[in-house]
Amino acid sequence: MEERKGAVTLRGNPLTLAGKEVKVGDKAPDVELLDTDLKPVRISGFRGKVVVVSAVPSLDTPTCDMETRRFNTEAAKLGEDIVILTVSTDLPFAQKRWCGAAGVDKVKTVSDHREAAFGLSYGVLIKELRLLARSIFVVDRDGVVQYVQHVKEIAQEPDYAAVIAAAKKLV
Fold first, then answer.
1. Under a CB-based contact definition with an 8 Å cutoff, are residues 52 and 84 in contact?
2. Which of 11, 55, 101, 153 could cysteine-pair with 135, CB 3.0–4.6 Å?
């Protein structure tokens, strides 16, 4: 398995990312995730739409909470052609509870808790913590990755404007 030591940090401490790094131009790996009702979800299920995939460590942390709320606000302005998914290793039950408490209803939360298949397939599984590194992938209507953003310090927020601009450019 491919590993990238020191690829990200948490409060300045280097961490290792496991899995094959996905780059612009790659076909988006199609893994099975679970939605908040325990139903399987695949990124290929959104073919024909632009998909923003936001990987976060846990919705129950301040930065992930802010990020997902911000993407929920953005999703409300984007229309039907763009879907925003937030992927974490949180259990689907915790995701459902968090979404209800936070009023998040435009972003679809999906769980990678079972096999960390998303984390490994996209190269964002933090080996030391078995959580996902803060990363964004924008996938075009044909399932090809057109934009990638890895946040080096996972306690920081992503560049939202760059992500939204990349998604809008594909509509």
1. yes
2. 55
b/e string for 126-146 if b means 16 or more Cβ within 10 A?
bbeeebbbbbbbbbbeebebb
Q: What integer pLDDT is reported at residue 94 of this predicted model?
A: 97
Q: Quick check: is 64 catalytic?
A: yes
- Please name the amino acid found at residue 143: G
Please name which of 83, 114, 110, 113 lies closest in space to residue 99, comparing C-alpha atoms. Answer: 110
Q: What is the per-residue pLDDT for 1?
A: 86
Q: Which of 17, 43, 59, 64 is catalytic?
A: 64
CB 126 within 8 A of CB 153: no
Burial of 93 (0-12, 13-18, 19+ CB in 10 A): exposed
Residue 116 CB coordination number (10 Å) = 19
Task: Read off the amino acid at residue 58.
Answer: S
Q: Indicate the pTM of the whole model.
A: 0.97
pLDDT along the chain (171 residues), means of 10: 96 97 98 97 96 98 97 95 98 97 97 97 98 98 98 97 98 95
**Cβ neighbours of 160 (radius 10 Å):** 16
